[in-house]
Amino acid sequence: MKPGEELTLGELEKLDMGHDFKLALSRAAEGGNVYLVGPPGSGKTAMLRKLGLYLSRLGRGALYLKLEWVKYGWSLSDYVKHYGDKSRQLLGGEIGDVVLLDDGELLWGYGSAYRNIVRDVRGRQIVGAFREFDVDAATLLFGDGLTIYIQRHHAPREAASKVPLGLAFLNKTVEITVI
Which domains, and CATH codes, for the chain? Predict the structure, then answer.
């Protein structure tokens, strides 16, 4: 399981995902598509699940569709038959009109393998998580949407130890403000 999938609904509820989450929820609650883009470990799956949880509470059921779990040639009904219970467990609600698309980047590399799924979700609201994103392809497949780029959250760095001649800054990025 990915890091965002092993969280219980209670743990998911307690996560503070900041402004990005509020922006995504606002757009998704209005019925717009939302595309979450970020590197592995940035929290895309957890945010996707939390969005599904909140949308369910607003009466908008969501289907958690993990492309990694889709077998070649499956339709949406095949997926629900095999993973519908898992989707309900991960979101805590009923399957409805919103598709939470996880591992969406697989569409760019293996489009023919997901043709039936894409056909079946067209016209539905998409809230997706992508490691890599192709705006043009997403717009053609699902329509316009709000794209939110999520940065990986790093643990605070330890203070640099004293090193002669300032060599502690080698291989480091420094932000300089010019006044």
Answer: 9-155 (3.40.50.300)
